[in-house]
Write the structure tokens for this entry.
Amino acid sequence: MLNFSTSEENYIKTIFHLQNGQNTVTTNELAERLRTKPASVTDMMKKLKAKKLLHYQPYQGFRLTNEGKKVALDIIRRHRLWEFFLAEKLKFKWDEVHVVAEDLEHVSSRKLIDKLDEYLGYPKFDPHGDPIPDSLGKMENSEQVSLVELPLNKPAEVCRVVNQSEEMLELLQHKKINIGTRLEVKRKFGFDHSIEIKLRQSKRTPSEQPPFSISEQLAKNIFVNL
Amino acid sequence: MLNFSTSEENYIKTIFHLQNGQNTVTTNELAERLRTKPASVTDMMKKLKAKKLLHYQPYQGFRLTNEGKKVALDIIRRHRLWEFFLAEKLKFKWDEVHVVAEDLEHVSSRKLIDKLDEYLGYPKFDPHGDPIPDSLGKMENSEQVSLVELPLNKPAEVCRVVNQSEEMLELLQHKKINIGTRLEVKRKFGFDHSIEIKLRQSKRTPSEQPPFSISEQLAKNIFVNL
DNA sequence: TTAATTTTTTAGATTTGTCTAAAATTTAAT
DNA sequence: ATTAAATTTTAGACAAATCTAAAAAATTAA
């Protein structure tokens, strides 16, 4: 993984948090969160796009690429491990750890962080209760829910399918659903135990597709990240 | 204490090390050590002079002010505490700690460093055997030696006088020697147990003074920092 | 003590990250 | 469907830290 400036890292991390399930992040949102100006955000978005860390078309908002998400998770891992260290070992109060970790997270020695993780006993949650990504970017329940539990109109990304029945495979194939496909639930029908789903546009499916319904049985076995 | 950029801190720290007893540091020396260009050094020296961290007149070399030394000691404290932490707690090998500490030292939360110090049990030396300054900038024997042990022609700074006899007071007064006076030993005479000393020029004594001799008896009680 | 050499400084350019003000585009409202 | 309002981008400027090339000062040597 390449090396990024403190400023780039702050942008990446913040986009990751704002993105949280949502489709895209807007210029103003990001500017406000980073206490900077929209023009500065646009500049940085061009740079991060050039580095292939995010998808960005002028006026269309932005979204991290998979590579961008990996980088974000690595920064968040560093941040939360330091928070844990500060609270657990240095006896900082839990509300004091964040600001200090904001600085420490930018020290990006891989070996340092992995050894720190080991020293701390591979903690799973930071002092705020947020999950700490492991060295592969995986973390305890990254808000993984099945499609039937997903709130209406909340955009999410398919991350796991726990049933490999023929019916399921046919559905996935026919509707072009893969790991990473973004979608949302539009309606839930009680009378026939089905839910209505709408895929969100992507590079592969640039045209808007009509919503369709699937059975609760199948939906139960499809998991998404918020 | 004010806050300095990573770059400023690296300059300050490096000047402190190069200065080590010596009178002044030159532009080329500093440029070489920092792997930068002389022109960049000159630029930074102007900035640090404006911040009153060093004495500097064009073409005359530079020397940290007392304030500059305080800042340097604080950076060195941070560096060596992190080195100790990395070796002692994270089990880094002693030759791996330096590069990582180079980054960590610039995280300048006072509270972080004092709590880290406490957590580590107030260590006195880092893994390389270098002394760690305490929160007031004091450190274990910062190469304090008496004048009789000082190598010839090695510039040093008077830091302690352990004998308050009338003879001593008269000497100090007459020759205008104070804590902080810079001097070097030019010759040692065995036949009458005396040593020849030369004061170095300073703002207070801008003109070159001739060397003079003092007895080993007195010299034993005058301590200097290298 | 001049001349040659080395060291240091100045002048002007570059990169990164930021800003303001104005222009372009999208969204909302009548 | 226009117009008005909000959002986003562009253009141009600035500060920090760096560089190269040239000028100035100090040092060394003939």
